[in-house]
């Protein structure tokens, strides 16, 4: 989960510094793919009672990021 979560941030930085529109779109697609993977791993995790609420917050945040990246892609076409 650390890899996919870290990849989102790294690829977003790359998208921000993209040399072309095609490169930008590719990086945003990778961001969306990696956040989907992060959400998948979060859903599979079984935290103790203390962290269950935090897990749900993180899943919600991942879902929102997926929507944001999807919106960016739609507007970039």
From TrEMBL:
Alphabetical list of Gene3D superfamilies matching this protein: 23S rRNA-intervening sequence
Spans traversing the lipid bilayer: none
InterPro entries cross-referenced by the UniProt entry: 23S_rRNA-intervening_sequence, 23S_rRNA_IVS_sf
Cleavable signal peptide: none
A Pfam family recorded for this sequence: 23S_rRNA_IVP
Protein name per the record: Four helix bundle protein
């Amino acid at each position: 989960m650390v890899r996919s979560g870290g990849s989102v941030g790294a690829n977003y930085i790359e998208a921000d510094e993209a040399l072309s529109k095609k490169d930008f779109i590719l990086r945003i697609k990778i961001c969306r793919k990696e956040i989907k993977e992060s959400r998948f791993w979060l859903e599979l995790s079984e935290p103790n009672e203390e962290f269950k609420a935090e897990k749900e917050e993180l899943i919600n945040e991942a879902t929102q990021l997926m929507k944001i990246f999807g919106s960016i892609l739609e507007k970039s076409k």
